């Protein structure tokens, strides 16, 4: 019995720590770029996939849903070919803007590919090993001889190198509570407008900001990554910079307790 209790406690501890957000921890290997490069990576295949299978936005949840069940074997193979094309590129040969688009698109495409490989599934958190909370620590691709995980891309490359809080609105974890999978592939030529659009869309959804019985309810993203958004005053100001809803004044003057929530259900069009 004692061994069973100890085992159960260890499982609970592992699950709780596994579901915590990783810290931003620079992988120096990727902190280089070639600013003289004018190479533009084509992300057309990813944009075509999105327009075909992720065009619908559910008005009830403000979520761009993916029609996973409708993806043909041919189009899944094309998606895998696109990911393979990306991994054949040395991202260090690209300029910083191209690198940003490269890593975000690789993250999002690889996440959709993971879901398709395991579909049907109720939540991405069900993927990974028995002791895993999702697949984020699984080595999913190899780039320039390095095995890469989704956590590597987000927390060891994107966050520490670019230090842009809008990264959290660009990467998508295939869940209802996540900022939407963007309508098209990210492109270096229009990164600023795309990031601003993704940020504004999420902040003006109930997934990000809402009031229930006078209490401010925010996305758990702002709790998990509080280090990126600053203290409560800085976070509120960040939200106000984009919020266009009728509760602007209420948000601006709010001084009560904040509650955080997140919906891990699959962003699936049924």
UniProtKB/TrEMBL annotation:
Keywords: Signal. Residues 1-20 form the signal peptide. Pfam families: DUF547. Residues 93-203 form the DUF547 domain. PANTHER family: ELECTRON CARRIER/ PROTEIN DISULFIDE OXIDOREDUCTASE, ELECTRON CARRIER_ PROTEIN DISULFIDE OXIDOREDUCTASE. This is DUF547 domain-containing protein.
